[in-house]
Amino acid sequence: EKIEIFAPATVANLSCGFDVLGCCLDSIGDTMIVRKNQINEIRITKITGQDLPTDPLQNVAGVAVYALLKELGSQQGFDIEIHKKIKPGSGIGSSAASSAGAVFAVNKLLDEPFKPVDLVRFAMTGEMLASGNAHADNVAPAILGGFSLVRSYEPFEVLSLPVPGDLRVVVLHPQIEIKTRDSRSIIKQNISLKSAINQWGNLAAFISALYTNDYELIGRSLKDEIIEPVRSILIPYFDDLNGVAMDKGALGFGISGSGPSVFALCKGEEKARDVKQALSNFFSTKDIAFDIHSSTIN
Ligand code: HSE
After folding, report:
1. Residue 65: closest CA among 44, 38, 88
2. Exactly one of 81, 125, 180, 228 is catalytic; which is it?
3. Reported ipTM
4. What angle do CA 170, 151, 253 make, to 5 degrees?
5. Position 56 confidence tier, pLDDT thresholds 50, 70, 90
6. Is 19's C-beta closer than 6 angstroms to any atom of ligand 1?
7. Which residues touch 28 (CB under 8 Å, ≥6 apart)?
């Protein structure tokens, strides 16, 4: 018995929702093949595309599957193959794709003892291993699709949000590696009441805009005065890229997850193509390799 799945990339935070908001990209992702085995062991049998640990206790996919099987009280073994297209440290949920994909596949092979929202908790153990923090803003949209909002971590509650049909995401990945663990360590632990007011206003407005298909409001709400000023320093040409995307008519621009990838939200396929082209033209003149994608949210 085996299953082959697409494990999608995700954009976390979306500027206004640090650690609570994320969305699922449907054109970028890894492939995973998971089989039941008869030896009651979790094995990472193959990894292509990246050099990652095959010890299941050191691999986010293995750890997430252990968490699922432990709660189920099952001894079933699985062989997991991971074909990585998403680079670790790119800011588009590489570890999340592997842990979310693994628990999704294993749950299917076990005839779905868990609901998708329950799988998010297991996949979060992979994020803990990868970054030292069990955030859900990549794994939740990777499993549930579309936009996800974490209302609360304790007790854990996650909601799915609607996706306005014309929304497109352009993601530019400068090929430097920023570890989430490192880019979390530089964030301020305390913020002012004034910043908090601005931030929750923007997050609430963003959510409202998803329900009302208000693209202009989506753009106005994509703000981050807490994390972005600190993290953007690590991202080459961040301000220039922001300017290029906004000049071309992007709705908003920001850091994807913990970076170095950046994202622009756009209304419509054509606008996304223009913004992608402009960002690509700009970055081609710099001496840092990059890749760039345009995707729907699904
Ligand atoms: N919310 C997390 C962070 C996402 O920004 O650190 C990491 O991809």
Report:
1. 44
2. 180
3. 0.99
4. 20
5. very high
6. yes
7. 8, 9, 85, 86, 92, 171, 293, 295
Residue type, 44: I
pTM value surpassing 0.95 = yes
Instruction: Please say if 10 is a catalytic residue.
Output: no
Q: Is 160 exposed, middle or buried (0-12, 13-18, 19+ CB in 10 A)?
A: middle
97-101, 175-179, 217-221: least confident range: 175-179
Measured CA to CA, the distance from residue 180 to residue 133 in angstroms comes to 9
Q: Which of 133, 135, 149, 158 to mutate to test the pocket of ligand 1 (most atoms within 8 A of CB)?
A: 135
Q: How far apart are CA 223 and CA 211, in angstroms?
A: 19
Q: Is 296 a catalytic residue?
A: no
Quickly list DSSP for 164-215: -TTEEEEEEEES----HHHHHHTS-S---HHHHHHHHHHHHHHHHHHHHT-H
pLDDT band at 251 (very low <50, low <70, confident <90, very high): very high
Per the document, the length of the chain is: 298
Q: Is 180 in the pocket of ligand 1 (CB under 6 A)?
A: yes
End-to-end CA distance of the chain: 27
For a substitution probing ligand 1, which of 131, 173, 235 has the most ligand atoms within 8 Å of its CB?
131
95 close to ligand 1 (CB < 6 Angstrom): no
Identify the helix (H) or strand (E) that includes residue 277.
Answer: helix 269-284
